[in-house]
Design brief:
alpha/beta, single chain, 506 residues, 18 strands, 5-stranded parallel sheet, 18 helices
Length: 506
């Protein structure tokens, strides 16, 4: 049977989210028996599948999420676990002592292998069904929309491509730059890829300052230490908070107060949108109900407390499974996005200002094994935290870190492991997104990322035109979706995106 028409779908970014897009498109095109002549272009300048997140090359880098949530197939969160079980014999040779199970935290490199295999399998599956898949190892730096609504793409090495649909799965940008130190020879703008960090810090006794103290900062420390770094390391951050520690096994918790029903009732009875102060009140009520006692919330403030003591307490709680704050926040996993959608942009910004750090510390916790490693480094004196960060002053051969209390620490190297930039205009390493913004083909959302239709993930232009066949998934939708650092969430959202493209092709 002759094909009816020809269409090209371009996916920019071949990390986990981009791979999820390709897999779902191939499966759905095959199942729908689409008669079009389809070609899928997958662009990335690094590895296809692992990306920066899962291509670290460091077996000491563990997933920060339980394996049972890491399936790359929508509706099948256990797919990764099942894949490990199927290949257990071979995996045990490459990863001696590997624990395989729903509550395990396998190495990220292993997850990268899983993504690579899924990509290869579905590429072959697609080509057998007449769907051409091309992997193009280059970054797309620019794009424009023609009068015929086709996308013209230009890569960093000057290649040009045309597509009918464009999917932005660009992944996490680097942290925002620090002006005065940005061009210093010993400034490392991102700890990824790990090889860049290790090749930069060759002196194993050097003093290393790491900007940030969250999950990425912890990974930076582990990268250095696992590769023989013996010099002092200082985590330099605004709050000076470490992530809490994940339980050995997550406990089920059924919320009584902080529920979607309660939130919708507030909206209905008070005739207004939900506010961040409402969420804070409901969380406190829920926590006191769960613990069976009144909580002195001032005592729960971690500001100014010794990070080593807090980590020791967190490890104990993780082993005993007694942290109500974490249990409540984990139980919100599948409702958080629905609640987030009920906040307007101004309230989302207030959330970021008032409570995001508290939520992240509890909800985005580190595996117990990593927590024990970090505590040991505190004990030996190799690791310290300098909170209330204020300034980094460059010197001829290093840096001076200063906090608000005028405490200082001298560093030979600085690694920027702060969170990724939220606003498109601040994403210095994302030329494609910056170009689309300058051309007014996308609109910046106040809380971060781009403006899009959350029902289809179609990106909206300033004219609110959503018929330009432009889509986004993952970090570019940060402000609209909140949970874009959760793979399971991105996989489910890609289901909406690919459904919309398939319906248009039909």
């Amino acid at each position: 049977m002759q094909k009816e028409s020809s269409h090209v779908i371009a996916i920019v970014g071949a990390g986990a989210t981009g791979v999820a897009c390709l897999i779902q498109l191939v499966i759905k095109l095959k199942v729908s028996r689409n008669k079009s002549d389809i070609e899928i272009l997958l662009f990335d300048k690094t590895d296809f599948g692992p990306g920066l997140a899962y291509g670290t090359g460091e077996t000491g880098h563990l997933l920060n999420t339980r394996a049972r949530l890491m399936g790359i197939m929508p509706g099948e969160p256990m797919h990764f676990v099942e894949w490990m079980q199927t290949h257990e014999k071979d995996l045990q040779k490459s990863y001696p002592g590997l624990t395989i199970g729903p509550d395990s935290y396998p190495p990220r490199t292993l997850y990268g292998e899983y993504l690579s295999q899924m990509l290869s399998e579905h590429r072959r599956f697609g080509e057998k069904a007449g769907i051409k898949v091309r992997l193009i190892k280059s970054a797309v730096n620019d794009a424009d929309l023609s009068s015929t609504k086709q996308w013209s793409l230009i890569t960093e090495d000057g290649q040009q491509f045309t597509s009918d649909y464009l999917i932005l799965a660009t992944g996490n940008p680097q942290p925002s730059a620090f002006g005065e130190i940005e061009h210093h020879a010993n400034y490392i703008s991102s700890p990824w890829p790990t090889s860049r960090l290790l090749n930069s810090v060759r002196d194993k006794n050097a003093r290393v300052g790491v900007i940030g103290s969250s999950l990425t900062a912890i990974d930076s420390v582990i990268s250095l230490v696992n590769n023989g770094h013996a010099g002092p390391i200082c985590l330099f951050s605004k709050e000076g908070y470490l992530p809490r520690v994940q339980f050995r096994k997550e406990k089920e918790y059924e919320r009584q107060v902080l529920t979607l029903g309660t939130i919708r009732k507030i909206i209905r009875e008070r005739g207004r949108q939900i506010r961040v102060v409402d969420l804070i009140r409901l969380f406190r009520e829920e926590a006191e109900l769960a613990s069976g006692q009144k909580i002195d919330w001032k005592l729960e403030d971690r500001a100014g407390k010794d990070a080593r003591d807090l980590l020791s307490q967190d490890l104990k709680q993780a082993k005993e499974g007694e942290s109500w704050f974490q249990q409540i926040l984990y139980s919100l996993r599948y409702d958080a996005y629905s609640i987030w959608q009920l906040l307007n942009a101004d309230q989302k910004l207030l959330y970021t200002k008032w409570i995001k750090t508290f939520v992240d510390v509890n909800r985005h916790a580190i595996p117990l094994e990593n927590g024990e490693k970090i505590l040991k480094l505190f004990g030996t004196g190799q690791l310290l935290i300098l909170g209330n960060s204020k300034d980094i002053e460059p010197t001829d051969d290093g840096f001076i870190l200063k906090n608000a209390e005028n405490r200082t620490w001298e560093a030979d190297y600085i690694v920027n492991a702060a969170g990724p930039a939220a606003l498109i205009s601040k994403m210095d390493d994302m030329p494609l997104l910056r170009s689309l913004l300058e051309k007014e083909l996308i609109e910046e959302y106040p809380a971060g990322g781009v403006l899009a239709d959350t029902r289809t993930l179609q990106v909206l232009s300033p004219s609110k035109d959503q018929h330009n066949n432009l889509y986004a998934a993952g970090h570019p939708l940060l402000g609209l979706q909140l949970d874009v650092n959760a793979l399971w969430f991105n996989v489910e959202q890609v289901d909406l995106l690919t459904n919309d493209i398939i319906s248009r092709l039909s």
